[in-house]
Design brief:
The structure is a single chain. By secondary structure, the chain is an alpha/beta fold. Helices cover 42% and strands 15% of the residues. The strands form 4 sheets. The chain has a 3-stranded mixed sheet with strand order 1-2-3. The chain has a 3-stranded mixed sheet with strand order 4-5-6. A hairpin with a 4-residue loop joins β5 (155-160) and β6.
């Protein structure tokens, strides 16, 4: 029977609203910006080289003196970029949920064509997060947490209305990292358990079995719009993880699947191939319902991951805790907050 404990809130609004958003350090070399005419493959390369997952997309046709809202058409995100390419390849190949070797070969051929698509088309067509900004001088950490936690926005551009441009780019990982850093400095800890906070609720976690075709895992990630799915054995025990970075290899290195004739490899075979290629066996990171929120936060920060699996005593996945969950559980939305927020941050309101 499912655990019916509702998600609770620590209601730490008062603490977070004292922290100015301007205290987040801006990138030393400035915010990475991708022009709208950049190809999908080149955009993926830029993100990978900068070791970031997303960046604002600037309209190549906008004038230099345009308002910031007219300069940018959205955000390009590594995960959504991969989703767009594979989804488009499936449509073009007309293969639906076909996981046969022939279907995968067709998809790979279509992906090679789509790699040259302008990123502006991908940004407009894919399910990217909206470009919701915060003003550099007036916003606080609480504002960022409310947007990220309540709306599931993974990254927020910081705008200087005086400069008329984006001056910083804050991610969920940076927010949780800053909270963890502050806790250590003040010798504080979040000792509430996942169960107590309602973060260990039983749910139907999307998963794949070791004997399923690898394409099944990729399709599942895209269908559920998640960054990863657990891999389970015949007994339902979690033994691995297929993530968006693995799907990214379809876009960045499709030749690997063709040259090694592994396009129909099983999920289990892929895990073995990946561990040999990287010379590293990636054990899935799991927690129990009685694990503390602090332990989950520390793991996310040190391991640089966006989600962890909650397992039962038999090591079977029963839930997922994401960065969004961690941020959301700490704050409470003030009455009419978002109505006032969107009015105050409307470009027309600011003009």
């Amino acid at each position: 029977m499912a655990n019916k404990v509702e998600k609770k809130s620590l209601n730490l609004n008062a603490s977070f609203e004292q922290f100015p958003i301007a205290n987040f350090p801006a990138p030393t070399n400035g915010v990475i910006i991708i022009d709208s005419d950049t190809s999908v493959s080149e955009a993926a390369k830029i993100l990978a080289q900068a070791k970031i997952l997303s960046a604002p997309v600037r309209d190549k046709n906008a004038s230099a003196d345009s308002r910031w809202s007219e300069k940018y058409i959205g955000i390009v995100d590594m995960v959504s970029l991969v989703h767009f390419v594979v989804e488009e390849a499936l449509k073009r190949g007309d293969k639906g949920n076909d996981t046969s070797p022939e279907a995968f070969e067709t998809i790979l051929q279509e992906i090679e064509v789509l790699r040259h698509t302008p990123v502006s088309r991908a940004t407009r067509a894919a399910k990217f997060g909206p470009l919701i900004p915060l003003e550099e001088k007036e916003s606080t950490l609480l504002d960022a947490m409310l947007i990220m936690g309540k709306y599931g926005i993974h990254r927020i551009p910081i705008v200087s209305f005086a400069v008329g441009d984006i001056v910083n780019f804050i991610t969920q990982s940076a927010v949780v990292g800053k909270i963890s850093e502050a806790c250590k400095a003040q010798n504080k800890s979040f000792n509430e358990t996942l169960a107590e906070l309602g973060l260990a609720k039983l749910k139907d976690v999307a998963r794949v079995h070791t004997e399923q075709p690898l394409l099944s895992a990729f399709l599942l990630i895209i269908e559920h719009h998640v960054t990863a799915v657990p891999v389970v054995d015949n007994f339902g025990h979690i033994i691995g993880n297929i993530s968006a970075s693995d799907v990214h290899s379809l876009v960045s290195e499709p030749h690997l699947f063709v040259q090694t004739t592994r396009s129909y490899m099983t999920v289990g075979a892929f895990l073995e191939w990946r561990s040999q290629r990287e010379n590293n066996v990636k054990a899935p990171i799991t927690f129990k319902p009685e694990s503390t929120l602090q332990s989950v936060m520390d793991c996310m920060v040190t391991q640089k991951i966006h989600r962890v699996y909650v397992v039962d005593d038999l090591n079977r996945p029963i839930g997922v805790v994401s960065l969004t969950d961690v941020i959301d559980v700490m704050v409470v939305e003030p009455e009419n907050y978002f109505n006032e927020f969107f009015v105050q941050n409307d470009p027309e309101y600011r003009s």
